[in-house]
Amino acid sequence: MTTIAQSAPAFSFTRERLSDIARDILEHARKGGASACEVDVSEGYGQSVTVRKGEVETIEYNRDKGVGVTVYLGTQRGYASTSDFSREALFATVDAALSIARFTAPDPCAGLPELELLAMQYPDLDLYHPWDLSVEDAIELARRSEAAAFAVDKRIKNSEGASVSTQQSHFVSANSLGFLGAYPSSRHYISCAVIAGQGDAMQRDDWYTSRRDGAELESPEEVGTIAARRACARLGARQIPTGSFPVLFEAPLAASLIGNFVHAASGGSLYRKASFLVDALGKPVFSPLVNISERPFIPKGLASSPFDDEGVTVGEREVVRDGVLEGYFLGVYSARKLGMKTTGNAGGSHNLIVAPGEHDLPALLKTMGRGLLLTEVLGSGVNYVTGDYSRGAAGFWVENGEVSHPVEEITIAGNLKDMLAGVAAVGRDVHVRGGKQTGSILLERMTVAGG
């Protein structure tokens, strides 16, 4: 693990100051004739360094702040934002939002959440762990990561760089119903991407680690070593004949499959009828062996939050139980459009956990027997209206439950409805580095187009 030290927060504005700004905006909106108002005030800072072939390539510092104001004149809505915290600029922003609202068509679904839905009290989820990392120490960590990658194999010929980033932020969210929520958070990462070469062939791969608490990151050496081993494993890649085969999504990539599901099950897609999951609530969507839960209150969780972007209290729930879709992802507006209740998902999902199976990756390969282990997809070939799925891909061909050789320049195709229903196994090889946690996912069959 990486050794870190913590120091006093380095925010330019206190929480009290952000709260005062929010209250001033709400009061000015009220005096301006707004029937309701909501405001978000935020500030963040951080640094990122990138080292390539031992030399510093970039050093970036960021310090940002902003205010977003939404006002309502009945069911007419206006929004404006600013990064200027002066009193004149803040009030001008409110006035701009009011002006926009006056020219906006009424929308009966627009408006604040109901009072009883708001998180007037909420827990501390331990999301703030500032990393007091000097730029010199960050450079050293990046160098260690890249050096570890080059030390793995002589075939590591080049590097796209190793990066170390630390970010801290805090915000206040408030509305005219009396809600005021605020908390700080942090997120840090170490990444490394390298290129392996053998003859004329070259392959790249990468690895990264991300946590709220820098002390819980994988070591820079581990990140570099994994990136190098993955790049070397891809050397000798070739195409395979076209056919229909089982496909095993490696765990980091399987999270993107869950992301496809979330997109299709989210309010905006549903009320626009732009999803293959319209009217799917209460129906089998996944294979019966799939269970997905939402856990917003995990301490230090990368997608933890006590309330959503509208101040609505979140809660633990089962989204998919034995393959059956039990819940959509809705904010207040999309819920009203659908004639439903918000699920507290304005802004997205909160720590989706796919229940792991009993097998690790080698055991899943043996379960698959013959097929494709998928490690990378390219492009954005997903049609959420029909569910059609087609992506460029790379990975490894598997024979008799063992990796045979790497493959590249192939295309995988299917339909998300069939893919989700055709989950044959979920692994226990979970990599926690985002808001969607899953092991590798084995699909019964997809079309694989090779050379």
Write up what this structure looks like.
The protein is an alpha+beta fold. Helices cover 23% and strands 36% of the residues. It has helices spanning 15-31, 87-102, 135-152, 220-233, 251-264, 267-271, 332-338, 361-368, 416-421, and strands at 36-52, 55-73, 76-82, 156-175, 180-198, 201-211, 243-249, 292-294, 317-321, 324-325, 352-354, 371-378, 388-399, 402-415, 423-426, 436-437, 441-449. Strands 3-2-1-4-5-6 form a six-stranded antiparallel beta sheet. Strands 7-12-13-14-17 form a five-stranded mixed beta barrel. Helix 1 (15-31) crosses helix 2 and helix 3 runs parallel beside helix 4 (220-233). The longest helix has 18 residues, at 135-152.
